[in-house]
């Protein structure tokens, strides 16, 4: 079996065991455990200039190679084009996007620097798997340096309709770079159709044939076992005792404007206003670790949430009850699993999300004997798979409030029926299955990649490339 080369903007530090507890590392755990692998990308540190010689380390079968970003590249490539331009556009938010030509130059420069630093580390029979929007240009840069290995690309966030994406300056250049990729994966068939349409309209019909939907999953059994084990430990029992018999609703998100947090807070406030019977009977815990706190838009979002939470608590609280508990620091993943298990309601209402694994984790964490209810945005990719959720329009606080009322009143047999259907899906469409399906398409082992229970999608076999000599 060929070595798997994972390329991502950010690489976990192999010396920090906690660094691989979540995110991409969890999704790739199965693949990394079964074959030799190299994980290449940014160290998370900055320096005077972007590095050219990777810092290398090895843990088990996985080698790590990381480079630092120059201060200017961090500002223009990472904060600029990746997060101020691509991130909002890909989430359908053209009005929030900020464009600067210097950001585009840095994005090109860093993708080229990644290619130059990675190339000497490659073996002739490697399989290369690039992840996410920070590195749209990397495959093209590798090809320009003579790389002939198979290259796959997976986009973890949504891909918007062509009319939205082409509002991005240099959209044509981004799409043209995808011609260099052998297999292109996205989360949903809607994303796949949007990307195919954009590629075809810009003259890249060949690349459009190599786009497929591969919904990502979680290690459902592992997360369920973790939640059950943690449920009896100190931090979870402290929370349970503090609720004094009240129901718990929980939201877990990065502090980001795509997550619909102001509307969610407003929706919970509307629940207490429109359905006063629930006052004093439910507490909402929102965990929202600060993300990109040095960006003005995110600072403004935090102020807005601080004010909204304070206003609702000020108006509704009783001496022994605060409606909303709001945490902006990170909470350990095991603790969150225990919190989810005891929650009566999970609230996952992003304005737009590629998949949203928190929704699947909430389902996996539930007590099979007394499961809770998932309130889920219809604009999250997970909504296509989790048919037992209460789907809401995340832009409509009243819709959220009505769903929360239904969730609070839902009888046990209906909760169990809805959860059972979702749990079966989460256990079937795991992270390991996602990995195997995408790599099978990339490496030419399968002509058709099944996209899970949401219905299959066809991914054309990768182009055969002559092996380098």
From TrEMBL:
The text of the family note is: Belongs to the glycosyltransferase 20 family.
User: What's a GO biological-process term for it?
Assistant: trehalose biosynthetic process
Q: Where is this region: Disordered?
A: 447-469
Molecular function GO labels: alpha,alpha-trehalose-phosphate synthase (UDP-forming) activity
Q: Which residues cross the membrane?
A: none
Please report the name of this protein according to its UniProt entry: Trehalose 6-phosphate synthase
Q: Where is the composition biased (Basic residues)?
A: 460-469
> What domain of life?
Bacteria
